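Let us work through a complete example step by step.
Step 1: write down the sequence.
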Amino acid sequence: MSELDVEAVTARVRFDAAGLLPAVIQQHDTREVLMVGWMNAEALRRTLTEGRVTFWSRSRQEYWRKGDTSGHVQYVRGAALDCDGDTLLVSVDQVGVACHTGARSCFDVDPLEPMIGAPA
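Step 2: predict the structure and record it as tokens.
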């Protein structure tokens, strides 16, 4: 993706009041949802141009590229904005686990048991 394309994409994004965009990270071949992180415009640019997922850490107030310290790398395979431009879906090839707890997915650690609905 060229720099001009990234600028056009960034212009379409509806960042929140803090300048952030939620990014849903999904395994490209199984469609398993692995985690959710936050990106500002620079993290989005890095993700779209470098082939590795970069987030903005709200707690540490710094960029972090998934896998740099853990080895659990996320290689970008695709990306899409939702219809409102306020959420990003990133398809990745996940190497190792995605969750900081050691679970494959952040959504494996606290499953809920909701009432299962059925169409009328």
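Step 3: interpret the result. Residues 100 and 106 are 8 Å apart (CA to CA).
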